Structures are given as C-alpha cells and as structure tokens.
Amino acid sequence: MAQLQGKVIPIPIEDEIKNSYLNYAMSVIVSRALPDARDGLKPVQRRILYAMYEMGLRHDRAYKKCGRIVGDVLGKYHPHGDQSIYDALVRLAQDFSLRYPMVIGQGNFGSVDGDPPAAMRYTEAKLQKIAEEMLKDINKETVDFIPNYDDSLKEPSVLPAAVPYLLVNGVSGIAVGMATNMAPHNLNEVAKAISAYIKNPNIKDKELLKYIKGPDFPTGGIIYGLKGIRSSYLTGKGAITVRARFTLETLRSGKDAIIVTEIPYAVNKTNLLEKIASLVKDKKIDGISEIRDESDRNGMRIVFELKRGAIPKVIINRLFKMTPLQTVFYVNNVALVDGRPKTLTLKELIKYFVDHRQEIVIRRAKYDLKKAEERAHILEGLKIALDNIDEVIAIIKKSRTVDTARTNLIKRFSLSERQAQAILDMRLQKLTSLETRKIVEELQATLKLIAELKALLASEEKILQVVKEETLKIAEDYGDDRRTEIVPEEAENLDIEDLIQKEDMVVIISKDGFIKRMPVSAYRRQGRGGRGLSGGKLNGDDAVTHLFIASTHDYILFLSNEGKAYYLKVHEIPEGSRIARGKIIRSLIQMSPDEDVSAVVAISSFESDDFLFLVTAKGYAKRLDISTLSNAKTRGVNAISLDNGDYLVDALLTKGNGEVVLVSRGGYALRCKEEHFRVMGRTARGVSAMNLSAGDEICGAALVEKDKYLLLVSSYGYGKRLSFEQFSPHGRATKGQIAYKVSEKTGELAAAISVDYKDDIMVVTAQGNIIKMAVKDVSEMGRQASGVKVVNIDNADYAVSVDRIARDKD
C-alpha cells in the first residue's frame, strides 16, 4: 500500500493563535453572551422559549419536567451543556432576577438568599402568558428560520417579540473582551416612551427621560441621584447608586430598630447578613445589639436591633458605606445590531425594537394578505358554482372521470384549477341556503380584509400605529406599578428624619452636661399643684437646667456660656427612659471642657428669613440672621460676644417685626419692639436691653403674640398668667414694669414663656421632676399678684425651666 503524500504548509504560531482566538471570541460574542437588540434575547434564552413553545407548554397547560425541556433544547438547538441551559431556564423563572419572568416554575428555583435551585429532575416549568407574546405570530413567516447546529432542523434567528424584552428585563453577560449589563425597567414607562418615539422619531434623547424615569429593579430599593441614569440613557454607560429600603421602628422593649424591607438588585441576602454580622463582631459597626431575619412568604424583613443610646443615623450611614445595603449598578448597554456588538443609548434601544416590530407587522400583513387572497380566490369559485349549481351538477354528472369534470368546469366557467378542485371537493350540505349565505358573507369579509391589509402595507404611518397600539396593549395587560423609588440628586443626601416619625419630644439638659429626649406622650397630664414624675436620675450635685419641647425633625441650637452656637437634629439626641440619666452632651457636640449650655432653641430650617433674638443675664440683647448659623453643626461657631460674668439666658426665634417681653428674676418685665435691636454680626455683644437693679438678672424672654398670655413660674413652684395688654411698650434700656411680686415664699422668677389658653405646659425642677399640666389650670392674675401653686416642690428642690407642648395645628 502506497504511503499517503501530503504537503506541509508552515504557519507562524502567532497567526494561528490570533485567528483561533478571534474565531472563539466572535463565537462567544455572537452565539453565547450578548443579546440581540431586536428581541433582547441571548441564543440560549431564545432556544429555550422556542423549544417550550414547540412542546405546547402554554401558561394554561400542564407543567413538564425541566429535565425534559433541557433535553429538547440540548438535543435540537443548543449543544453547549445541560447545566448552562438549566441555569438560563431557572433565571427566566426567578421573580427576583427578572422584572417580568418568562417562565412559570414549579418547585425550588432558588431564592434571593442564594439558595441553589433543585436538580432539573425535580422541577417543572411552563411558559408565562407574557412569554407567549414573545412568540406570537412566529408561524406567519414573520421571522427567518435558520438551520440548527447539525442542519437537521430549523430554528428562528430572532423571535417576533411583541414585548420590549431588552428594556424591561435587562441582561448581563460576559463575552471575550467585552461585557453587557443592562438594567430592567417598568413596562408601562417603556411603552409610553416607545409611543412617544413613534409619534416623533426625531424626539431628543433627553425628552425620553420624561417617560422612563429610571431602572425599575425586581427587588425594589431606592435609586439615589439622576446623574447615573442620565449618563446611561444618553451614552449607554453609567453608574447608578442603589440603596436598600428601610424604616425605623421602636420595639416593645423600647429600643430603636432599623427594618430593611428591600435590598439592592442582585445582592445575596445571606452573604449580606454574614458581612454585617462580621463587621458588628469586629466592632467596625458599633451600636447593633442583634440581627434577625424575619423574612417570610409575605416579604422581606431584616431587623437590626440597636443598643440603647445608639444614634440610628450614624449606624445607617456606616451600613451603607461598608456593606452591600448600598451598591452601584454599572450600566453597559452592549447588544448585537446586525450581528455586531454595539453600545446603545436609550433612544437607539427603542429604535431597534420599533424597527423590528415594524418588520414583523409588515411580514405578518403580507402573510395574512396572501392567505386572504388565496381564500378569496376559492370563495369566488364556490360562489360561481352556487350561482350555477344546476349546470355544475350536470357537467359533473356527464363527466366520466374527476379530471374530465375538473377540465370541463375550468373551460365552462373560466375557473382556475384550484377553484375547480374546491367545487369538486364541496360537500352537498353546502347547497343549503344557510351555507350558501355563509360563503357569500365570508367572501365579503375576506375582500374587506384584503383591502385593509393592502391599505396597511401601503402606509408606513399605519404600520407604526399598529406597533404603537400593540405595545400599549402589552403594557395594559402585563404592566404594573414601579417598584424602585428614584430620589433626585438634590435630595441625594436625604436626611434620616424622612424615615423617622414626626413626634414631639421632651429634651432635658442637666448642669453637668447630660442630655436625653423622651416622647411627650410618656407624661400624663396632672392637675395644678401636682408633684410630677421623675424626669431623670441625677448624681451628686447635678441639676436639670433646661427643658424644651421640639419635633424629632427640628434642629436644636445650643448656645454656650462662651457665646458659641452648635446644632443637632432632635432625632440625633439619644432617647432615654424617664429615670435614665442621659448621654454626656460633649459626646454629641464638640464643646470645650469649660463650656456649658446656656440657652437652647428649636429651629425647623436655617434657610428661612427668621432671626435669632439673644438675651444675656446682664441685660444685653441682639438680633442675628438665622442663616449665619447654618454651618454651626457640631463644631460650633461664634454667636455672641459676652462680657466677663455675663451669660446667655434665652434665645427666641422671631420674624423681626414684632415685640418681645424681657423678664427679670426680681419680677420686672419690659415690653419693647424688636426693631429697637438692630441685626448684628455673630461676634457683636449686642445693645443694652433692660436696666436692671443691683443683683437682678434677666431670667427669660417671650414673644408678644395676639390672644396669648405671658406665663411666669417662680423657683418655688408658684406661677400665674398675665395678658400682654397689661404691659405698655417702652424703649429699650429702661426698667420696665412690675410683673410679679417676688417674696421669700415664692422665690425669684425662674422662667417666662408665651402660651395659649388651650396649651399644655411642662415644668421641670432641678432634681429632675417633671409635671405636665394644662395652661387653663394656671389662673390669670394682675401684675402685682404672687400667683398660685403650680407645682409642689420639696424644700431642697426648685423650678428651673418651663416649655409649652405644641398642638397638632402648630
């Protein structure tokens, strides 16, 4: 036997490697990892849906084993391994992976916890109803069919896809040298954007953002900022920040808890909890006492129980910074256009979908027209036969064979061969008058349909109108509400109080610098002369110096004895029980060791036109524009310069055009206009406000308000109400008028505030006892009166502060 002769062709190894690798890369890009811009599907997804459609697995039919489905796909269309096919099938059924799942799964198809699906021999599946819209009209020559891998069968090169799958479900895939990561969207919004594009193909990219607000993830969450959304829609690339959705609750134990109900897209819940538990254990996140996963079939619920005194805002910010409770979704809109990978903008994604649907409608109309014309041709022959039935029967009877009869009919009535055959195939029952009329009506309807289809094919506008109507109908049938909330950039640093219930809080500050807050509801109203409830456990010589009431959403402005201003949000002050001592204030704001809090005021916003009216013990006062303190925060800024031995006693939030009453401990009150005190800078001392007697000091100030009263409380628990009309206006730096008859029994005045007759007030003593009572229980009296017993005080105790409780309308 002769030895085979061959020729060796030398090829450089780098060329062979380059060609082989490029062929492999293009195979992965085109046949595996990237979706087609028309139907939005990767080849494996398209083959799964088509195989299930061929198997008759409609949404209203019985399930079939996933092993059977995978076997069909593997054997007929996709010879790349059963596991890859099953993984793709499982993902098509997961409601936490796809915004609009294409497959109904029965059995374990995995979970958001990262649990793997059961083996394919245990699970079953069938098509969702919306998936049938992806395959609708596929048998009407709407798409091209290509040979499968072994040329034994045909498979669709693309699906008709009435659903804008790529936009509503997104896709992720890693090819060779490129990748794709497209976000899911809300079907209703996408349909509106498609409708707007069809109405105006020259619509600007930015205008489409009016219809599609942003991604809509199946797991919900909150998108922060619009910059990443704009970038991804206008350029095809962008980074979108997604946060978990959470609320704050107070548990039965009285502790605060962070409740997470939605996590960012594609985050594994089990891994997330393990990560957070590890950070808590390593004390990188402090303040969490317990982590519980209370999720059930009704939804997700992750509980982070906080330690007493922990500040929720700090912990939440750390969770966002250090854990996947905040992630970034990197958009990379890469899809195949005419078999080539291309980065697509939002408008281009819509354009390729509309172009594809336009082609589908045209091909479907041509198919329907061809079938209608064929049917009309037959019906016209049948009508001729029915109109000449006696002659037709006679011709058939005289004919020796079927072929002869067909030829004779063609010759006599000028029929086509198909028409003649249809006449011969017609059953005798068609000769009844009812059946005859049905044929005539069907012919008329068919001729009308032909006219409509020709008109449709002749008008691009009508074709686009069909695309628009069918897309809107899909949205009507399968669309739902948006799940992912979008927070604009201007609210990107949203304060935590948006998640905290608005509630009035009692805030108490002691002489030694301890602070705490408690709900006003923790104190029941008592009658005049009550002893009150304990407001805190004080040590040694410590005493309560300030009590005020503010909403959890307010700013608290602290003014120190050195004239500096600091602020916190009320919710940032640790909540404590009635007997708790509280937290040292220097751990919340950066006061020096020698500073003490002299005055406090609640402010809803620093961006208002309001003023801060500051009053010192030695009788100086000034007005300060509130906006000048907007950067005070916890480090503090100067608010007023003080003389040696002087200190702030009160601060009022004013409009700048009213009147104030200054009250001294010795019982004098001076009513004067605010305009007498000009607006000054932060470092100014102020001007003389009240001429005080030797040894006297100012104890407080109040705004003169219509239909309200001046409430005075003495250090030994006596008090009274006075009408503001009892005081005549004077110029500043005068002594004022007698307002209270101070005696050894009453003690000097401790506090003065403006109140309404319907208000409730709270009085606090140095030892921390608090009484809540109605203003109406305190008698209205003249300027010379000593008042009535407001609170029953022990010998070693004395009243230090009073504040009113805001009603709902306030």
Automatic annotation (TrEMBL):
This is DNA gyrase subunit A. A motif (GyrA-box) lies at residues 526-532. Heterotetramer, composed of two GyrA and two GyrB chains. In the heterotetramer, GyrA contains the active site tyrosine that forms a transient covalent intermediate with DNA, while GyrB binds cofactors and catalyzes ATP hydrolysis. The active site is at Y122 (o-(5'-phospho-dna)-tyrosine intermediate). SUPFAM superfamilies: GyrA/ParC C-terminal domain-like, Type II DNA topoisomerase. Keywords: ATP-binding, Cytoplasm, DNA-binding, Isomerase, Nucleotide-binding, Topoisomerase. Residues 34-499 form the Topo IIA-type catalytic domain. It catalyses: ATP-dependent breakage, passage and rejoining of double-stranded DNA. Pfam families: DNA_gyraseA_C, DNA_topoisoIV. It is found in: Cytoplasm. Few gyrases are as efficient as E.coli at forming negative supercoils. Not all organisms have 2 type II topoisomerases; in organisms with a single type II topoisomerase this enzyme also has to decatenate newly replicated chromosomes. It is an enzyme of class 5 (isomerase). A type II topoisomerase that negatively supercoils closed circular double-stranded (ds) DNA in an ATP-dependent manner to modulate DNA topology and maintain chromosomes in an underwound state. Negative supercoiling favors strand separation, and DNA replication, transcription, recombination and repair, all of which involve strand separation. Also able to catalyze the interconversion of other topological isomers of dsDNA rings, including catenanes and knotted rings. Type II topoisomerases break and join 2 DNA strands simultaneously in an ATP-dependent manner. Belongs to the type II topoisomerase GyrA/ParC subunit family. InterPro entries: GyrA, GyrA/parC_rep, Gyrase/topoIV_suA_C, Topo_IIA-like_dom_sf, Topo_IIA_A/C_ab, Topo_IIA_A_a_sf, Topo_IIA_dom_A, Type_II_DNA_Topoisomerases.
